[in-house]
Specification:
Layout (H helix, E strand, L loop, with lengths): L1 E2 L4 E2 L12 E6 L5 E5 L4 E4 L4 E4 L10 E6 L5 E5 L4 E4 L4 E4 L10 E6 L5 E5 L4 E4 L4 E4 L10 E6 L5 E5 L8 E4 L4 E4 L10 E6 L5 E5 L4 E4 L4 E4 L9 E7 L5 E8 L5 E8 L8 E5 L4 E2 L4 E7 L7 E6 L12 E4 L5 E10 L11 E6 L7 E4 L5 E2 L2 E8 L4 E10 L10 E7 L3 E10 L6 E11 L4 E10 L12 E3 L5 E4 L5 E5 L8 E7 L14 E3 L4 E4 L9 E6 L19 H8 L2 E6 L4 E5 L1 E3 L4 E6 L3 E8 L9 E7 L2 E2 L10 E7 L3 E8 L5 E11 L2 E7 L12 E9 L2 E9 L2
Parallel strand pairs: 27-32, 34-40, 54-60
Antiparallel strand pairs: 1-2, 3-4, 4-5, 5-6, 7-8, 8-9, 9-10, 11-12, 12-13, 13-14, 15-16, 16-17, 17-18, 19-20, 20-21, 21-22, 23-24, 24-25, 26-28, 28-30, 29-31, 31-32, 33-35, 35-38, 36-37, 36-39, 39-40, 41-44, 42-43, 43-47, 44-46, 45-52, 46-52, 47-51, 48-49, 48-52, 50-51, 53-55, 55-58, 56-57, ...
Length: 726
């Protein structure tokens, strides 16, 4: 039948058609129509006249299954039994298995974009002919079955083959020139029995199945249409893509008498894409790195899939779920785009975008002064930076170190402001009312999004001497020397300049085991105070250091003063002081060192040259020894009474063989007596130390220069020079 858009015209054998059973139709480039028949050859109709070709003319067989016009204008006719015939308008040429064709039963013919001809056969697989050579592909190469009913080339140049075993059906196969891939119902195909194939103007592939409708494949996803969608029947025998873009589906319907009734369905392609709209967007500015959005197709359009991308990245896979969740997003401005497509793959050409900013990083305030571990006293300025772009305010607070919270009254607010500060003053802190000790100082900054960042340092408030910078452990400078105290000045060390070759860390800590093996001490010797371990890390000591032990009531370990000979009255205290001595231990055995007692200052002093454990003892016995005077030394050798260099006083140390009166004098270089430091004062055996404050007999400061110091005791005189500088 011919339909011109208005009326139908039927042609039969009576008009010139070879046979009324038509199996294939092709229009050639000249406008001639060719009709293959089921047994009587092929007929050509030029619009006026009919001409039939049979085996007598050169056609391989009268039962024609398929017709193709190739790019050169030659016509190819597949037959059921005797191969395929080519007709160039004058001559016929037949190809069979003898030439390389897979089987003489040819079901379908296709010419690919390269000009190769493909012949789907009944049982012989598919054969390719390039004009010279034949190549046949079968199950051994990747074809699921050797009966090929239809061939289709997609827009990428890959070939699709529908095979037709009925028990069981094998699906369809794609061949890209090097590898094979079979698709079945498990991949999304409606049914494994594929009867027809076509492609539409958008490049989508359509596959008719026998009993399950038609499936569309866009290269990524599958969509199946059945009678529910409007198809006349789910048994599809032919599919055609018209120039208009419409698709035609030939189907078979089981009639009332058990006969199949053919029907035809036209599918009008929907060319209108959906419109995508955001239902919800991320906040324009947010403090969370995890945000979400939702989107829909406008006008309540159904069967919609969505895709999205962030910051011009790759689009996501299509999904019917219209939501997006972003996690662990970086700070900054982001753009989310969402698009949609309908069930015929029309895609929204103008995807909407949502721009938003993530600022999940709290402000980063900085405390620059005081620094962590700094020693502070009096009133000081707290400096640093609090300058976040979204700063709401900053706070400066202080509390005792390690306190359980920052809430008042545990913590005190020093300052609060909404004005940004960059490397400048933040608050003034008066530490005077506070007890000495460790304090936490915190600067916190909050932005307009509610995020808070903080910086915290722990400092030492030190308003009462001895100050923390000279409290053990501390670093003693090689060039200037320095003082080292225990926390409450129970022990005091002074190191003169250049006592060490390089800076040294000096530690003075209570002895771990202050008990004393009795057999290591002279008879009648009793420990008065707990000892101290004095160390300087193995650094060699180049000059003697000055050591003082305090035994004042209330000092560390002074409760032990009730032991031994120390009494509670003033006279008893003086009596005990006359018998006090320092001992040193470095290996568990005590060695008597000595020391000069100053009852007015309640201290014992001497010069030391070695580290170790030092402790104060009461001696009730008499210490005997040789009548010698030795080891005269100064700590420091050069000093400044006004504090310009080294120390304000000099320690004059010496050693007595036994207790004896001692006289110490200072002379100028010309021999004039400047000061009699001590005169006939009885001192204990061992190391002793007296101090000169640099003043003369009239109370004035001695002039700059060299001075001679003499020590007289036990009939001996020791002399040595020292220097005074202003």
């Amino acid at each position: 039948c011919r339909f011109d858009g208005r009326s139908w015209r039927t042609y039969t054998a009576a008009d010139g058609l070879a046979f009324d059973w038509v199996t294939a139709i092709v229009e050639d480039r000249s406008g001639n129509l060719w009709f293959g028949t089921a047994g009587n050859g092929v007929s050509r109709f030029d619009g006026v006249n009919w001409r039939t070709y049979t085996a007598d003319d050169g056609l391989a067989h009268g039962l024609v299954t398929s017709i193709l016009e190739d790019r050169s204008g030659d016509l190819w006719f597949g037959t059921t039994y005797d191969g395929v015939s080519r007709f160039d308008g004058v001559n016929w040429r037949t190809y069979t298995t003898a030439d390389g064709l897979g089987s003489n039963q040819v079901n379908t013919i296709l010419e690919d974009r390269l000009g190769n001809l493909w012949f789907g056969t009944q049982g012989g697989g598919v054969s390719r002919y390039d004009g010279t050579h034949w190549r046949t592909y079968t199950i051994a190469d990747g074809l699921p079955y050797n009966e090929v009913r239809a061939i289709l080339e997609d827009r990428s140049g890959a070939l699709w083959f529908a095979t037709a075993p009925y028990d069981p059906p094998r699906g369809l196969t794609r061949f890209d020139g090097s590898s094979w891939r079979t698709y079945t119902a498990a991949d999304g195909l409606a049914d494994d029995h594929v009867t027809a194939m076509a492609k539409d103007g958008f490049g989508n592939l359509w596959f008719g199945t026998y009993g399950s409708g038609v499936s569309r494949f866009d290269g990524m996803s599958w969509q199946t249409y059945t009678t529910v969608d409007g198809l006349a029947d789910n048994r599809v025998t032919q599919v055609l893509g018209a120039r208009s873009g419409d698709l035609w589906f030939a189907t078979l319907h089981m009639g009332g008498m058990g006969n199949y009734v053919p029907s035809l369905t036209r599918y009008e392609t929907d060319l209108v894409p959906p419109r995508t709209a955001f239902l919800s967007k991320p906040p324009s500015v947010g403090a969370s790195r995890n945000v979400s959005a939702a989107f829909v197709a406008a006008f309540s359009e159904s069967k919609i899939e969505f895709s999205y991308r962030l910051d011009e990245g790759a689009w996501s896979s299509w999904s019917p779920v219209g939501t997006w969740v972003g996690t662990n997003l970086s700070d900054g401005v982001h753009t989310l785009e969402a698009t949609s497509r309908d069930y015929v793959t029309n895609v929204d050409p103008f995807p909407p975008a949502a721009t938003f900013e993530v600022d999940a990083t709290p402000p980063a305030p900085l405390l620059t002064s005081p620094a962590f571990g700094a020693v502070v006293r009096g009133a000081l300025q707290v400096r640093g930076s609090a300058d976040d772009a979204r700063l709401q305010d900053y706070r400066v607070e202080v509390r005792l170190a390690g306190a359980r919270s920052w809430d008042p009254p545990i913590a005190a607010l020093l300052a609060q402001s909404s004005v940004s500060v960059r490397d400048g003053p933040l608050a003034t802190w008066d530490t005077s009312p506070l007890a000495d000790g460790l304090y936490d100082l915190r600067l916190s900054a909050t932005d307009s999004l509610g995020l808070t960042g903080s910086a915290q340092v722990t400092v030492v408030v030190d308003n009462h001497a001895p100050f923390a910078d000279v409290t053990a452990p501390t670093i003693v400078s090689s060039s200037t020397g320095g003082n080292v105290f225990t926390t409450n000045a129970e022990a005091h060390l002074y190191f003169p300049p250049h006592a060490f070759q390089k800076d040294a860390v000096v530690t003075v800590t209570p002895a771990v085991d202050p008990s004393v093996p009795a057999w290591t001490l002279p008879a009648g010797t009793i420990q008065l105070l707990g000892g101290y371990d004095i160390e300087w890390g193995g650094a060699p000591l180049m000059k003697p250091a000055r050591l003082e032990f305090s035994y004042a009531t209330g000092g560390a370990g002074a409760a032990a003063a009730s032991r031994g000979a120390a009494g509670s009255d003033a006279g008893g205290a003086r009596q005990a002081a006359e018998h006090l001595a320092l001992y040193r231990s470095s290996n568990g055995t005590w060695e008597r060192i000595g020391g000069t007692t100053d009852p007015s200052a309640a201290r014992v002093s001497l010069a030391i040259t070695a580290p170790g454990t030092y402790a104060l003892f009461v001696e009730t016995g008499v210490i005997s020894g040789p009548g010698t005077l030795s080891s005269l030394a100064f700590t420091p050798r050069v000093f400044s009474p006004k504090g310009a260099f080294a120390d304000r006083e000099v320690g004059i140390s010496f050693t007595l063989g036994r207790a004896a009166p001692v006289t110490v004098r200072v002379y100028s270089r010309s021999g004039r007596l400047i000061r009699e430091v001590v005169a006939g004062q009885t001192m204990n055996a061992g190391a002793n130390l007296v101090r000169w404050d640099g003043r003369d007999r009239n109370g004035g400061y001695a002039a700059d220069g060299m001075y001679l110091v003499t020590v007289e005791a036990l009939g001996w005189t020791e002399r040595k020079t020292l220097a005074v500088v202003r």
